[in-house]
Amino acid sequence: MGDTPKGRILRAASHLFVTGGYGSTSVRELAAAVGIQSGSLFHHFVTKHDILESVMVEVIELNTERMRDAMVDSATPLERLRALIICELNSIHGETSEAMSLLTREWRSLDPEARARVLVLRDRYEQLWLDTLAASADQLVAIAPPMLRKLIMGMLTQSAYWFDRDGAMDLDGLADTIMSLLMRKESD
């Protein structure tokens, strides 16, 4: 979602769809937020629905690539897990926060074909987590990777409601705290 005309449309759509709802946001409002005429949106997209799908596709692809890049520099499964946690926290609290939120808030607004396309990308994203959790299983709490991923996702996504980036703890500290909760204790 770079600083191209298409990227500006996707960023504005993320904001408007999250704050006002996909169904309540008009093409005219979206165009006004970008500073273009309504018809100009359709130079880049066929329908408003295509804009919604594009936001979701872009944010999943961008964050999957960021996770893969971060994992390259990680020597152990636990380092890869921490890298995934940091990447997802940055997605939730960084420039893609609204688009990430849109994935869950407006999922129902996708038609079945678009939902299927987005699911393929989401499954690739989630597989990075599942593979890493499986590789780390002997050092983590004794919870099956699919369930553990859901619990981690809950911790990370809910941080959007309470974490203060200007507070005493930064995202690295939050990642360390989450890692400490995930680690197997000696008595386990």
Number of domains: 1
Order of helices and strands: HHHHHHHHH
Structural class: mainly alpha
Write the CATH fold name. Tetracycline Repressor, domain 2
Largest sheet: none
CATH class: Mainly Alpha
Q: Which runs of at least 5 residues are low in confidence (pLDDT < 50)?
A: none
Number of strands: 0
Helix content range of the residues, please?
over 70%
Shape assignment: elongated
CATH homology-level superfamily: Tetracycline Repressor, domain 2
Distance between the termini: 44 Å
- Percent range for β-strand residues: under 5%
Please name the CATH architecture. Answer: Orthogonal Bundle
Outline the fold blueprint.
Elements: H1 5-20, H2 27-34, H3 38-41, H4 48-72, H5 77-93, H6 97-105, H7 112-136, H8 145-162, H9 171-182
Helix pairs in contact: 1-2, 1-4, 1-6, 4-5, 4-6, 4-7, 5-6, 5-7, 5-8, 5-9, 7-8
Explain what the structure shows.
The protein is an all-alpha fold and 188 residues long. It has a single domain, classed as Tetracycline Repressor, domain 2 (Orthogonal Bundle). 71% of the residues lie in helices and 0% in strands. It has nine helices and no strands. Helix 5 packs antiparallel against helix 7, helix 5 packs across helix 9 and helix 7 crosses helix 8. The termini are far apart. The model has no long low-confidence stretch (mean pLDDT 93).
